[in-house]
Design a protein that fits this description.
heterodimer; A: about 110 residues; six-stranded mixed beta sheet; 11 strands; about 0% helix; B: about 120 residues
């Protein structure tokens, strides 16, 4: 079963616009990561935010984390056609949850040239 | 450094057969995790190996098993294949400090079709 939900399930925008994806999760986490997947291939790691962090930036990416609401958002600024992909949030619980990421259902982003 | 590699990339099997998938982690990485991805269930964790020991296991039947070798390469085996085992199988490696929640680097996956 999945940890949480991602919203929206699909997002269609024009090049140059910003894209915002949201992720909610259910249990306490150690950190939250965002991944990108192109056409059913492997996942590419984008960014990791720890449970004691509220915001993180990497290039055109901005991630926020609100542990009180158990939610995170990923903002991609100035989108490009090459950003077209599925985006997944993945949480890591603490304790002995070695090697286990729990993924959301993903947001399919389409950026039109 | 070379990325995570998985072989084979594509596989077609029939029900009842068994299959072995292979994963070579990034050089120096000691933790390997396996995931199954299907349209219906999404990405689900199968198991994780670290220094040849299974440290964590997801909710999959015993038909799914794995192992890790001393060079950190890992294999997963599915016995008595069912139609529902058709999926993209992904492995991921992490630097292997042993900590929970490390960044995982994924391979391209093995697409298994069971007929």
């Amino acid at each position: 079963s999945q940890q949480g939900e991602e919203d929206p399930q699909a997002l269609s925008i024009q090049e140059g616009e910003n894209a915002t994806m949201n992720c909610s999760y259910k249990t306490s986490i150690n950190n939250l990561q965002w991944y990108r997947q192109n056409s059913g291939r492997g996942l590419v790691h984008l960014i990791l935010i720890r449970s004691n962090e509220r915001e993180k930036h990497s290039g055109r990416l901005r991630v926020t984390l609100d542990t009180s609401k158990k939610s995170s958002s990923l903002l991609i600024t100035a989108s490009r056609a090459a950003d077209t992909a599925s985006y997944f949030c993945a949480t890591s619980a603490g304790g002995t949850s070695y090697g286990k990421l729990t993924f959301g259902q993903g947001t399919i982003l389409t950026v039109h040239p | 450094k070379a990325g995570v590699t998985q072989t084979p990339r594509y596989l077609i099997k029939t029900r009842g057969q068994q299959v072995t998938l292979s994963c070579s982690p990034i050089s120096g990485h000691r933790s390997v995790s396996w995931y199954q991805q299907t349209p219906g269930q999404g990405l689900q964790f199968l198991f994780e190996y670290f220094s040849e020991t299974q440290r964590n296991k997801g909710n999959f039947p015993g038909r799914f098993s794995g192992r890790q070798f001393s060079n950190s390469r890992s294999e997963m085996n599915v016995s008595t294949l069912e139609l529902g085992d058709s999926a993209l199988y992904l492995c991921a490696s992490s630097s292997g400090t042993g900590a929970v929640g490390e960044t995982q680097y994924f391979g391209p996956g093995t697409r298994l079709l069971v007929l």
